[in-house]
Amino acid sequence: MVGGGIVGLATARRLAQRFPDCKIRLIEKEREVASHQSGRNSGVLHSGIYYKPGSLKAVTCRQGKLAMEEFCSEHGVPFEVCGKVIVAVDEAEVPRLDAIYARGQENGIDCRIIDRDELIAREPAVAGVKAILVPVSGIVDYPGVCRKIVQLLTESGHEVILGEQVRGIAADPKGVCVTTSQARYQTGFLVSCGGLYSDHLVRMSGLKPPAQIVPFRGEYYELLPSRRELCRHLIYPVPDPNFPFLGVHFTRMIGGEVECGPNAVFALSREGYSWSKIRLGELAESLTYPGFLKLAAAHWRMGAGEVHRSLSKAAFVKALQRLIPSIRSEDLKPCRAGVRAQALGRDGSMVDDFLWVTGERMLHVCNAPSPAATASLEIGRLIVDRVVSEVGSLAAS
Fold first, then answer.
1. What is the distance between the alpha carbons of residues 286 and 291, in angstroms, rounded to a whole number?
2. Do residues 79 and 138 make contact, with C-beta atoms less than 8 angstroms apart?
3. What percentage of the chain reaches a pLDDT higher than 70?
4. 304 in a domain, yes or no?
């Protein structure tokens, strides 16, 4: 396997459970697992309220959340079901809020509409006319989940190799040969969960990716400890249906912190956690991709606003004040940033569903969009099902 993020590790976990006699070797280029998207997200256990009823994202989110809670309970990984409010700040947002509620009902989510009085009773600092209360939403230590899976794998005799970058993938009569920066490995079947570099790994293996990864950075601020009482639940805005990001929100973290954000700004490299982190080859790859150029042309005004919020704390604070008007600049300190691996089609469409590519004795996960962390154990189960199908086809031939 390639990829030490939560999807790769969850898949390894499911493989080990399904085939206890198999030998799993997982390769990760960083010195620690969960170094990128899995360790830099908001740490939310999503309910699945937003997703199209019956869709793979809706089903995997609901089932994956239950599996994640069960895993954490069994293995002592911290999590908390703290609840979430999705807030309409004015009457113009109420029809969209009602549509989200209706979708939640279709998805079987435990949620209900609350009026302004109940909203203020639950979140006194929040400005809103109406909200959806989602009591089943929660928070979890995803890096802790990843470390626990590594421990379980190694204790069962499997191998997790850190600090080796994959440089080549080639099918041969014996299976698949994976060349890294330090060694060569032979495997009967390869599963690749490369996250920010998933499309590179597909090309490396001689296949064609169905979309290209374009990185978008999400930046956060953190409330000072003395101001954490401003956020009791997870506090989210009504999302813009024309844009796949959920907008800036307030997130309680499992360690007690409260993070505010993120924005969504084009990153200058796939691991571009700041404006100074530039890789010219990766930047050129994005800027010359027809899909990105079409996306930028269609959403340049929104993109300019995201850049403005990135460069101006005052602008970021103004965005946060839509939900909590009493927030002030001095209440916030800069926090971490994450980079989202956004898959884009050549037509400029943002791919918001799972993408898989299969080759001879290999399966590549090209896109595992949010809520991939919440759903990871269920996604891992589906990947194992596909592996079984591919191996069965090979045996039949």
1. 9
2. yes
3. 97
4. no
Mean pLDDT of 284-293: 98
Instruction: Residue count of the chain, please give it.
Output: 397
* Domain extent at residue 42: 6-74+141-211+352-396
Give the number of C-alpha atoms closer than 13 A to the C-alpha of residue 137, restricted to the C-beta side.
27
Q: Which of 74-83, 234-243, 292-301, 387-396 has the lowest mean pLDDT?
A: 387-396
Adjacent-strand bridge partners of 2: 27, 192
In a domain, 261, yes or no: no
Q: Is residue 159 part of a domain?
A: yes
CATH number of the domain enclosing 171: 3.50.50.60
| DSSP one-letter string for 310-363 | HH-HHHHHHHHHTT-TT--GGGEEEEEEEEEEEEE-TTSPBP-S-EEEEETTEE
Residues 48-94 have pLDDT tens digits of: 999 989 888 999 999 999 999 999 999 999 999 999 999 999 999 99
Residue 174 belongs to some domain of the structure: yes
Q: Are 322 and 310 in contact (CB under 8 A)?
A: no
**Contact assessment for residue 322 and residue 237, using Cβ atoms and an 8 Å cutoff:** yes
Q: Rounded to two decimals, what is the model's pTM?
A: 0.95
In total, how many domains does the chain have? 1
